[in-house]
Design brief:
37% helix; 7-stranded parallel barrel; alpha/beta; homotetramer
Chain lengths: 262, 262, 262, 262
């Protein structure tokens, strides 16, 4: 039986008169959209446009909560108390749930954005705060987590449905973490290189690190970034490679995902 | 059979380190809380505190959406496009719905705040935008409307459940509108005067205007404002007067309210 | 002796990760930049980049204060009290004065942005608030005003230095006001048409209205908008036409401008 | 000859309809006000009220820049790039300089607020960013620094005028740092205890740590916090103790302060 895999992308990151990214093109390529919820990017009108577009293309939608920092695009670490993080995430999920009603859709996954995600990958309190917000608002939501992070551990402890994520267009360090964007070459702009890495993750459950080391990785979903100039050709190449290898590409809400266990 | 009536108050209007109002005292007096949703006041933590407090006291909760203007406390008119107003309102309702999950509660009504309400009372496009947001997000929500306003008309056209609102502690002009806060005496600070006005509205379906004119008014809910220094004694007196006249005070979600018709 | 004229453009309208407009190209064409001050657009880093760029090209800088509304790009009317408007404008001028120190420059003019300008053109209280802010912070600042507006009247009453502004790329109504952007053709995208209109304003002190009527207009500065896709060719054509007619193009701070009188 | 000393307090921390602190009472007690600049607290109207009040009481004013985070009251660490910190500080100084014009005053000192100050005390890049902002905007500004911090070192390197600060109402750890607010007793609410500590710092150049250790400290200015309920009696007692010991209390701009050297 063909294995199934998911392609996701961060979307809806415009704000008022400002636009960024390639939502229209990417909605034809990916299966699931991580929708900015108005804190680090996005606004109610942008959210409305994104969910109605996703509905038309059969793309599932998830909340992509971030810090309350449009100027920093959610990429600045902010030290909040854990309960503040939790309620901030719950609030954003709820806001998108309401906007999803305009397309008759349900929000079916949650993936933390930017600095919030980076902090939560290492900080157990932040990770648990995000997990509790998901569990409280809708415990059937799929929690998209970075492989091997505190997010994954918390997901297991709370018994949430889990989708582990790999990155098609980012280099990995030897410890399995993403190489910093500050390192030359850390972002893969060559569609063939990204497609090759995605296929290896999906098929062989491996990725080659920046130094050439072979690492084990288990992923149910692969992220292609939307804000690079090369986003669209990269996403197309990744999709073509996965389809060429007979993977079935599916929205997260139609995949066979288990409840995580710790 | 005893007639039923509701007492509501605007609450949860703190913001971060700032506080305002008398939430703790008022939750013991009123039946329904209009919860600020983070745009003109309130933040996720304040919302969490309010909904868990409301749950303990059996107070029903409603969304109190306002303009995105904490500095102006939602009291400045902002000219947005109607679709922007609509999505802004939907977003805020959804945010509160998520926070209500922390108390295992449902959001059961919506009442527009401040300048948004004032504009929508007169502007059909704004009123319809608010009505469509309610209808889309949850068409079982009770729409709290000012008697005789565009909000009431829209509520009827959309077939939403309606609760008409009177004000215990504000004077009325001869045309049935609230007298401007700028007029001396427009806010009633005397608990007996407010209680008398509330009782007359509830019992006799009348209110005496500023100039002494007797006006017809139909209300299912009476608002007591929370941010005046006299809020608590006023609210207590209003409640005592209604109970003394054998009214049954009920949360909005347990009243017999009809679908409005135009 | 050759007449002198100024070309100005609104700039520095990016915000964090977001960009908009064509600052780099326009700084080589215009003489004076109206710099967004962080309320409707712009942030301290964007302001820094703009003032240092302006310094290198000999472009004078002015504050371009707007409403505190990045999401609405300062294009939504907000009803504030006049003293709130005044202090909001003063604050923004001061912020830019500090940033100008990074280029060893002085802020030499002020021009209100978007909805704030539109409201102040018709509302005497708003216009006076802006004028008082300028007078208080630095009464040598040139006040760029729309011909025939309340801004012009206030500028005269306060005895501020005045530069009247015409628009190269916008149609005029018969009453001398700008035609609404909502009307087809209201924005001139054809470089030749814009150049012709600018030259007629500068040379003949006239402009032809949308309906073909010949109107009197007196301008010391001509605005070319920066956020249209056609902004750069339009600005180049306008500049070429004015230079071809032997006008001396000058920054506002080096022009012979009189103190206005009422 | 009598030694001179300064009392400072953080002020102007209201925001729109919200108020906090005891500005009116404190302006009669302290010599210098650190004015919130609209990022972590304060708004243009609050700033206007504060500077005009300070003028009437002969209190000197300084900028009190903080992170752009009203909800967190500037008490949340935010990880920005050093240049972003620098321009953010410069912007806020400029904004206050403009508002000071309403009172015909000059801004004469700068003191960083909350989490920005805490980070800069330990982080050389943040400290240098604040120092460069001061040097660029007005190199005659007095830089109020925490004794022994990176702020003090940077102040020396940049040759800025320095005022070292001690805290009357906060306990110290053995290493000379402030004890965390989370520790019981870390904030002194007893006016006599605060007065005693202030006098010991001013007169004996010593402070007794939480564990009873005697520490050397050199201060030209003593802070009394404005947002504690005990702020006013504490401030009065501190002032009385210093005056009783024949100290001359002076605004920062009229003290004999040296250029720091590294």
């Amino acid at each position: 039986m063909a294995r199934e895999i998911n392609l996701n992308s961060d979307m809806g990151e415009g704000f008022g008169a400002y636009d960024i990214g390639n939502d229209t093109a990417l909605l034809d390529i990916v299966n699931s959209a991580n929708v900015a919820c108005g804190f680090h990017a996005g606004d109610p009108k942008v959210m409305h446009r994104l969910v109605t577009g996703a509905k038309r293309r059969g793309v599932s939608i998830g909340a992509h909560p971030g810090f309350d920092d449009v100027q920093g695009f959610g990429r600045r670490q902010i030290h909040m108390k854990a309960d503040e993080v939790e309620y901030m995430v719950a609030y954003q999920i709820g806001a998108l749930q309401a906007m999803a009603q305009y397309a008759g859709m349900k929000v079916t996954h949650v993936k933390a954005h930017g600095a919030l995600s980076n902090m939560a990958c290492r900080d157990r309190d932040y990770a648990a705060a995000i997990g509790r917000a998901i569990k409280t608002v809708d415990n059937s939501l799929v929690f998209v987590v970075v492989h091997g992070s505190e997010l994954q551990r918390v997901c297991g402890e709370l018994g949430l449905t889990m989708a582990r994520e790999g990155f098609a267009d980012r280099q990995y360090d030897d410890d399995g973490q993403l190489a910093s964007r500050a390192i030359a070459g850390a972002v893969l702009h060559d569609p063939r290189a990204a497609a090759k890495q995605a296929l290896m993750m999906a098929k062989d459950r491996e990725v080659i690190s920046r130094t050439g080391k072979r690492l084990k990785i288990e992923v149910e979903t692969i992220c292609v970034h939307g804000d690079e100039p090369t986003a669209v050709p990269v996403a197309k190449a990744v999709r073509a490679a996965l389809e060429g290898a007979k993977f079935k590409l599916k929205p997260l809400d139609r995949m066979q995902l288990g409840r995580a266990n710790a």
